[in-house]
Sequence to fold (231 residues):
Amino acid sequence: MQTFCGLTTDGMLDYLAAIYELGQELDRVTTSVLSERMNVSPAATSSMLKRLEESSFVDRSAADGIRLTEQGRLAALQLLRRHRLLEVFLVQVMGYTWDQVEIEAHRLEHAISASFVERMDSLCNYPTHCPHGDPIPRKDGTLPDEHLVSLLELKPGNQGILRRVATNDAQILRYLSHLHLIPGHTVKLVEMAPFNGPVTLGITNQESHTQTTQILGSELAEKLFVYSHQV
Fold:
């Protein structure tokens, strides 16, 4: 993967990573949505977008919104690789829990060298996903190919392996841990109440083979992604 550290500031890379992640969630990334994600004013976001456009990292249009160029995409993936490998390292080696790693990884991601990144990768046995289930970009900028669906896309009686939790909110992650809703466990959709009501889940711990039943709000269930051959 091409190195962009000499061409960009830390702030520019943070914006590129945010645009990439928003692009995975939304059909169209706007200045207002990006400024909300970055927790800055729309004016500050517009100023940064102008710099990124001048550096050929993004394209902007009224119809398509903000889109990364190929150069911008590779730079974003480079930072995401660092961040997600750091999260794995912090959990596997440093003993952090998955609700603690987001802030620590963000503090460290701009400070470590490329050789440090590769040492972490080797030490953690070349992980493909971070503790929350987000894919870790490879050195060449490619990503693991895995078709996931939201838990709400399952039909009652269907099940799948929980692979990804689409949030870094520490309180939510602690709550999901309490419910045993962590990547790797089997989740069965038992019942779904109408009108965006709660869902009833059967959860199988793959290590202890114990089973529990939990009720979860649909808004939170929508953030859980599973691999299922039944969809």
Remarks:
- The helical segments are 10-25, 31-38, 42-54, 70-92, 101-108, 114-123, 170-178, 218-221.
- The radius of gyration is 19 Å.
